[in-house]
Specification:
The protein is built from two helices and six strands. The strands form two sheets. Strands 3-6-4-5 form a four-stranded mixed β-sheet. It has a two-stranded antiparallel ribbon with strand order 1-2. 24% of the residues lie in helices and 30% in strands. The protein starts with a strand and ends with a strand. The protein has one domain: 60s Ribosomal Protein L30, Chain: A (2-Layer Sandwich), CATH 3.30.1330.40. By secondary structure, it is α+β, with helices and mostly antiparallel strands. The protein has helices spanning 48-65, 88-102, and strands at residues 3-6, 20-23, 27-34, 73-81, 111-116, 126-134.
Length: 135
Amino acid sequence: MTVQRFTPAGMLQPAPYHHVAVAAGTRHVHVAGQVAHRPDGSPVPSDLAGQVAQALRNTATGLAGAGATFDDVVRLTFYVTQWSPEKIAEFMAGVESVADETGLGSPMPPASLIGVEALFEPDVLVEVEATAVLD
């Protein structure tokens, strides 16, 4: 396996993500921030869960284009506008709604969720970046 993910004893458990990833490989894949834009240009979902789901779909498509999957991901970064802890249930509902479809395991790869004031378009609520390592 190229990527080994785990949470060592002494770190917060349970968490919806692994705390550590160790990767061996020579090809690094960096997927630029993905938002909920759909390939056909249809409207972006207006809710956080819907946007998280579509952004993860887009991330999976970017990974696949490089021959990778979420199994190869060593790091996810989520940027969420106007973040507050009360939004975690809706955020996780978006993750869980596409986990099987995209192959995003549970717990997720090491991840950060960063609250930001705004993203590049007023209706964009979330952006996802991914880093993967392949042999």
